[in-house]
Amino acid sequence: ASILESHDLKALVVACNTATSVAIKSLRKKYDFPIIGMEPAVKPAVEKGNGKKILVCATNLTLKEKKLEKLIRKLDTEDRIEQLSLQELVNLAEKFEFESKETKKYLNKKFKNIKWNDFESIVLGCTHFIYFEKILKQILPHHIRIYDGNKGTVKNLSKKINKRKKGKGKITYLISENENPEKYCIQFLSYLENIK
Asked: Beta strands 145-148 and 12-13: pairing type?
């Protein structure tokens, strides 16, 4: 928390579903600037769906958190939601292995027992997972739609910032135990720009 106080923040994005689940309430109690968290895009997947199953993929911790359970219960979709941990994708993302043979092998193994004809979509419930969208599109059947929570987060941030004073701002990247977080983040952003 002291690191946040050392910055004159206009808004904070907690760019992790697990960190949002664990810390967002206490952060919002402590600070009065907008704090935007992440949430797996279960709601848009349900609203745009046709009644078939939805596969929510996330890290072990996100799948265990009560926040996701509450969201699924609130949407009254317990019977349509299946959950699958893709924990190893975090490590693969950190190594920038978005399209490697190892990544493809891992995903094929994890999806081996999924009966895709029963499903209509997959929700990427981890901010690392969007980097695997290209390889997922190669592996998944064509009828499976892919959802992630990033667009909703950006919309929310934009709305909150626009309510506040206008002026020139800047983005500060903070990553624990990383000496050059901006350079690190820009590597990820560059990859996304190149595959669009």
From this structure: unpaired
Whether 185 is catalytic is no
Between vectors from CA 165 to CA 159 and to CA 170, what angle results, nearest 5°? 80
Sheet (strand 119-124) strand order: 81-85, 53-58, 119-124, 145-148
Catalytic, out of 12, 14, 16, 56: 16
**13, 46, 86, 126: which is the annotated catalytic residue?**
126
- The DSSP string of 169-191 is -------TT-S-HHHHHHHHHHH
Tell me the per-residue pLDDT of 131-152, one tens digit each, with 9 for 90 and over.
Answer: 999 999 999 999 999 999 888 8
Over residues 53-59, mean pLDDT: 96
pLDDT of residue 166: 63
Secondary structure of 115-143 as H, E, C letters: CHHHEEEEEECCCCHHHHHHHHHHHCCCC
In the structure encoding, which two tokens stand for residue 126, read together?
Answer: 């981890």
Distance CA 3, CA 137 (A): 39
Contacts of 78 (CB under 8 A, 6+ apart): 72
Distance CA(172)–CA(162), nearest Å, equals 18
Report the length, in residues, of the chain: 196
| Interval 192-196 mean pLDDT | 76
